């Protein structure tokens, strides 16, 4: 399906069946996704795989690598293992592959530096520290990690 979507539309956003999108992505979101012509994922620290495939973006520039990945020798058919075979080995440290959105997996409240209010979810890391979605404006963060409970 992903390869068909790239061929048909030139890019896609994958939102898994259990994912809820609260609004349609805006133009600045797509501009950020297209900036480096790399796939974009949410980084979850301590997650069992390098990437989480609940939500991600893929550009046409990755079509050949994605097709080649179908030949990867995986321990089981799994999209997260497949992406691990396709992505560069140093992907964890390469900010071009990560969205700047923090999703709280614990529901913890965090203080937004500019407004000093306690907020849960929609927190973004910037050079100024954690800021809420209102104060982030249109500038996405560079690299975000999300702490996930150890399994």
Q: Could you spell the SSE succession in H and E letters?
A: HEHEEEHHEEEEHE
- Work out the strand percent: 15-25%
Model regions low in confidence, pLDDT < 50 over at least 5 residues:
101-107, 120-151
Mean pLDDT: 73
- What structural class results from the helix and strand content? alpha+beta
Number of domains: 2
Q: How do the strands line up in the largest sheet?
A: 1-4-2
Radius of gyration, in angstroms, nearest whole number: 16 Å
**Distinct helical segment count:** 5
Q: What's the total number of strands?
A: 9
Helix proportion of residues, in percent?
10-25%
Q: Profile the largest sheet.
A: 3 strands, antiparallel
How would you sum up this structure, described in words?
The protein is an alpha+beta fold and 151 residues long. It has 2 domains: 1-99, no CATH class; 101-151, no CATH class. Helix content is 23%, strand content 21%. The strands form 4 sheets. Strands 1-4-2 form a 3-stranded antiparallel beta sheet, with helices on one face. Strands 3-9 form a two-stranded parallel ribbon. A two-stranded antiparallel ribbon has the order 5-6. It starts with a helix and ends with a strand. Mean pLDDT is 73; it is low at 101-107 and 120-151.
């Amino acid at each position: 399906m992903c390869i068909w979507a790239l061929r048909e539309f030139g890019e896609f956003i994958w939102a898994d069946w259990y994912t809820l999108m609260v609004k349609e992505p805006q133009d600045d979101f797509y501009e950020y996704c297209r900036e480096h012509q790399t796939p974009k994922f949410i980084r979850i620290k301590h997650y069992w795989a390098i990437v989480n495939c609940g939500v991600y973006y893929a550009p046409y520039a990755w079509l050949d690598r994605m097709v080649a990945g179908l030949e990867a020798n995986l321990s089981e058919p799994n999209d997260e293992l497949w992406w691990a075979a396709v992505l560069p080995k140093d992907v964890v440290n390469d900010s071009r592959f990560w969205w700047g959105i923090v999703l709280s997996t614990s529901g913890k409240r965090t203080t937004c530096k500019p407004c000093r209010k306690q907020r849960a979810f929609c927190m973004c890391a910037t050079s100024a520290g954690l800021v809420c979605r209102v104060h982030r404006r249109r500038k996405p963060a560079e690299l975000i990690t999300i702490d996930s409970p150890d399994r």
